[in-house]
């Protein structure tokens, strides 16, 4: 994984160097963003719960502050793989998710809103469990004991609403607040995410902090963001969903209140952007514990 990510970064840096002469002032209209979440991106063996996520999203600027996005997402959830647990002892359900996500963003000075619709599949038909076993078998990791009783197959449909606001800005310092709502059969939740950032950055509506820089005329951002997301969870199918064999213990129920603390560095240049963050998440169900994972973001603006 490390060699693969390093190879992508070197590839993008090469093309960034080749593109340095293209520094016109017209706005960039498209951006491709790769996001990788993995507990292997932090020191020590974490290997539990939200094990990894892989996301590829294309953004396109329509003009007048409007943009569209389409993306693919893949998520892997497991029990604590640092322990050899029998099926009745696992502390979090195994679950695999694949989905497509379509979004519309409205960007105004100091505020950005987004509406997105997610459609996908969870369960054995997603193929995530087979992929996870293949990866562990071929790269020297022990096979996880639990995919045979993962969250059962289901088609997913979710509507997600997000609003981001610049609360205060003075020079190279900014205070922001995000509000998020999820409605559907994958997740039902409400959350608020206050954060600060320090450095050189674009106005909120054209900054990578909102997922993409499409529409920007400036080309560089270098900042550090620190924040916390406080979430009230009403339903989380990766925990509350029915297992393939619901008669086998244990039974799981998601925690109503979850918090996630994060710190992330973002470096964006003319075309190429990258970021690295560390995320700490409180336990999502009673028998589990907290977890830490890393996030790598790579992007190309054109």
Automatic annotation (TrEMBL):
Signal peptide feature range: 1-19
Protein's UniProt keywords contain Signal: yes
Q: Which Gene3D superfamilies match?
A: Outer membrane protein
Keyword set, alphabetical order: Signal
Q: Does the keyword Mitochondrion apply?
A: no
Its domain of life reads Bacteria
**InterPro entries attached here?**
LpxR, Put_OMP_sf
| Name listed for the protein in its UniProt record | DUF2219 family protein
Species per Swiss-Prot/TrEMBL record: Algoriphagus sediminis
């Amino acid at each position: 994984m490390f060699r693969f990510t390093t190879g992508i970064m070197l590839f993008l840096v090469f093309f960034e160097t080749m593109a340095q002469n293209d520094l016109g002032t017209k706005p960039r209209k498209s951006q491709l963003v790769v996001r990788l979440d993995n507990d292997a991106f932090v020191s020590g063996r974490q290997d539990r719960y939200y094990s990894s996520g892989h996301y590829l999203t294309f953004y396109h600027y329509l003009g007048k502050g409007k943009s569209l996005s389409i993306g693919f997402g893949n998520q892997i959830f497991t029990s604590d793989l640092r322990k050899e647990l029998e099926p009745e002892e696992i502390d979090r359900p195994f679950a695999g998710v694949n989905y497509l996500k379509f979004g519309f963003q409205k960007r105004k000075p100091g505020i950005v809103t987004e509406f997105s619709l997610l459609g996908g599949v969870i369960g054995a038909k997603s193929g995530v469990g087979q992929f996870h076993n293949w990866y562990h078998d071929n790269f020297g990791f022990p096979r996880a004991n639990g995919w045979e009783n993962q969250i059962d197959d289901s088609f997913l449909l979710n509507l997600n609403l997000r609003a981001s606001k610049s609360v205060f800005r003075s020079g190279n310092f900014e205070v922001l607040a995000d509000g998020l709502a999820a409605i559907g059969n994958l997740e039902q939740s409400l959350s608020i995410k206050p954060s600060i950032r320090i450095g050189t950055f674009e106005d909120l509506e054209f900054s990578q902090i909102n997922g993409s820089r499409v529409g920007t005329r400036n080309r560089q951002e270098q900042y550090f963001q620190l924040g916390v997301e406080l979430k009230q969870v009403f339903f989380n199918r990766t925990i509350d969903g029915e297992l393939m064999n619901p008669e086998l213990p244990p039974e799981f129920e998601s925690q109503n209140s979850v918090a996630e603390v994060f710190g992330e560095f973002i470096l964006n240049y003319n075309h190429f952007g990258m970021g690295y963050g560390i995320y700490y998440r409180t336990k999502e169900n009673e028998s589990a514990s907290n977890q830490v994972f890393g996030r790598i973001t790579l992007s190309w603006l054109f």
